[in-house]
């Protein structure tokens, strides 16, 4: 711990912490980021004059995913302030409360003060479904699709996921890491601070391990949080054509145990859909993952309906896409703790039917939103664009899209204790948007109004203030 942080921490703790916290229910404690190799904030940060602070704190005290009407409750504070110390949020309240605090008055010049000038501040987006471990865009597929070919016709003609495999296998780990880091940086510019990153374009033990190592390398260079997922079961690679069971065996007996031993992933994912892996394969892969200490998630019902009952019995953390669900699936999802992650960027890009978000939400399913960033079906790193699609194409309200992209997405990664809301004790991950009303975030379609991002209490380097500065104004 740096000397000033230590002194400040001691001072805050001895004084019973800052008293103006608006938060109800949580004990105000000061947490310090331990053993972090990431860039630390040079000094504590005080955000002032926030026009709308979207805290996402739960009205009912529910720490889990928001369902039904609760999905639209953002708990907004106007003319707000937030104090962050040691990478954590310490206090939340109004600017007046912050400036009246004697300790803040005394130490104000030692804080990095950000005048938000009436802008909107919300928790950094949690993008809980991405595939950044690839080398090239798939422009031939894009052109063919524009000419009318379907996803499956493109795959049958040698395009699709398999066409990304060759150059991932040929790439070095550092080449791949550079591509992943570039994607993460693009995500940050649009307000994302936590990203789930899947492998899945290697499709051999060596190349999947290399992809996960590349994700780890990129994550170490990025100020946000990366959650790695093994997606060896993306499709069956060409060398196992007509022998899919042999490939499933390789994943269960070699890939999963090696990834577990080297602690390279937190989740195991399976593409369980027509043309990929069957329900039976998926259950076998889930069982192998659980034996090796992983939690599981799956891509389902994107191209055709996947029966969900048996998969849900394995308690997956999330089931993603869910475009072709029926009423029975919806009611089973609503009764489960599994998050349904919708990725409308893929529906938009492929020009296919959107998932029934309204029916899912109204039935009580816990819904999250993610980009599904990938080279074949969703080459967008923009969470604001996804929110926009969710409002216009799936009839979610702007408030629902914010909850789905923050607290519910954090639940989809089992990170709800540290991410997804602005409350004392949580990680200081925030996005400041240059708008006056949060509804403008999905409203200004395909625009980027993100003015500043704070991850783990540190300003993202492109926004770092000049050396020695203690105050910046976001005019
Ligand atoms: Zn995906």
Write structural notes for this entry.
By secondary structure, this protein is an alpha/beta fold. The chain folds into 2 domains: 3-123 and 421-473, Urease, subunit C, domain 1, CATH 2.30.40.10; 125-412, Metal-dependent hydrolases (TIM Barrel), CATH 3.20.20. The chain has helices at 3-14, 95-100, 102-107, 139-146, 151-156, 161-170, 173-188, 205-220, 244-261, 279-291, 309-312, 327-335, 344-350, 357-362, 383-394, 398-405, 407-412, 440-443, and strands at residues 45-54, 76-85, 88-94, 112-115, 120-123, 125-130, 192-198, 225-233, 267-272, 295-300, 318-321, 339-342, 367-369, 430-433, 450-455, 458-459, 471-473. Helix 8 packs parallel to helix 9 (244-261). The longest helix is centred in the middle third of the chain and has 18 residues, at 244-261. The protein binds zinc ion (ZN). Zinc ion binds at residues 129, 131, 299, 372, 374. Zinc ion (ZN) is lined by residues 129, 131, 299, 372, 374.
Domain count: the total is 2
Structural class: alpha/beta
Main beta sheet strand tally, sense and closure:
9 strands, mixed
Our Rg estimate from Cα atoms comes to 22 Å
Q: State mean pLDDT (0 to 100 scale).
A: 90
The tally of strands reads 17
Our estimate of the beta-strand percent is 15-25%
Shape: globular
Using the coordinates shown, work out and report the CATH topology of the largest domain.
Answer: TIM Barrel
CATH superfamily of the largest domain: Metal-dependent hydrolases
Euclidean distance between termini CA atoms: 33 Å
How many helices does DSSP assign?
18
The CATH top-level class label of the largest domain: Alpha Beta
Looking at the overall shape, the CATH architecture of the largest domain is Alpha-Beta Barrel
Q: Stretches where pLDDT falls below 50 for ≥5 residues?
A: 1-7, 10-19, 22-37
Bound molecules: zinc ion
Helix content: 25-40%
């Amino acid at each position: 711990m740096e000397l000033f942080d230590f002194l400040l921490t001691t001072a805050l703790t001895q004084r019973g912490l800052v008293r103006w916290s608006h938060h109800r229910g949580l004990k105000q404690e000061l947490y310090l980021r331990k053993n972090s190799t990431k860039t630390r904030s040079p000094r504590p940060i005080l955000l002032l004059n926030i026009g709308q602070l979207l805290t996402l704190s739960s009205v009912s005290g529910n720490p889990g995913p928001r369902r039904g009407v609760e999905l639209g409750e953002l708990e907004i504070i106007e003319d707000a302030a937030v104090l962050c110390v040691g990478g954590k949020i310490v206090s939340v309240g109004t600017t007046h409360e912050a400036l009246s605090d004697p300790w803040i008055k005394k130490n104000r010049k030692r804080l990095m003060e950000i005048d938000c000038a009436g802008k909107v501040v919300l928790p950094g987006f949690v993008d809980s479904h991405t595939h950044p471990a690839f080398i090239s865009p798939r422009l031939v597929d894009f052109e063919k699709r524009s000419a009318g070919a379907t996803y499956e016709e493109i795959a049958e003609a040698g395009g699709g996921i398999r066409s990304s495999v060759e150059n991932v296998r040929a790439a070095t780990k550092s080449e791949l890491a550079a591509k992943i880091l570039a994607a993460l940086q693009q995500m940050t510019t649009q307000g994302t601070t936590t990203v789930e990153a899947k492998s899945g374009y290697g499709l051999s033990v060596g190349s999947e391990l290399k992809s996960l190592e590349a994700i780890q390398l990129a994550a170490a260079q990025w100020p946000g949080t990366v959650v790695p997922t093994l997606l060896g079961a993306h499709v069956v690679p060409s060398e196992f054509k007509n022998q899919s069971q042999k490939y499933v065996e390789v994943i269960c007996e070699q890939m999963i145990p090696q990834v577990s031993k080297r602690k390279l992933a937190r989740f195991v994912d399976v593409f369980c859909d027509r043309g990929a892996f069957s329900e039976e394969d998926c259950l076998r892969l889930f069982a192998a993952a659980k034996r090796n200490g992983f939690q599981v998630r799956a891509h389902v019902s994107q191209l055709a309906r996947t029966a969900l009952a048996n998969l849900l019995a394995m308690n997956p953390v999330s089931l993603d896409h869910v475009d072709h669900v029926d009423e029975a699936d919806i009611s089973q999802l609503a009764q489960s703790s599994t998050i349904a992650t919708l990725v409308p960027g893929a529906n938009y890009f492929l020009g296919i039917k959107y998932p029934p978000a309204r029916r899912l939400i109204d039935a009580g399913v816990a819904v999250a939103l993610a980009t599904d960033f990938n080279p074949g079906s969703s080459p967008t790193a923009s969470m604001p664009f996804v929110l926009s699609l969710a409002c216009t194409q799936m009839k979610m309200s702007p408030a629902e899209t914010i909850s789905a992209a923050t607290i519910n997405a954090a639940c989809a990664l089992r990170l709800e204790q540290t991410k997804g809301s602005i409350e004392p004790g949580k990680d200081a991950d925030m996005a400041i948007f240059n708008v006056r009303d949060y509804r403008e975030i999905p409203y200004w379609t395909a625009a980027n109004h993100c003015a500043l991002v704070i991850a783990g209490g540190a300003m993202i380097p492109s926004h770092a203030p000049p050396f020695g500065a203690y105050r910046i104004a976001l005019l």
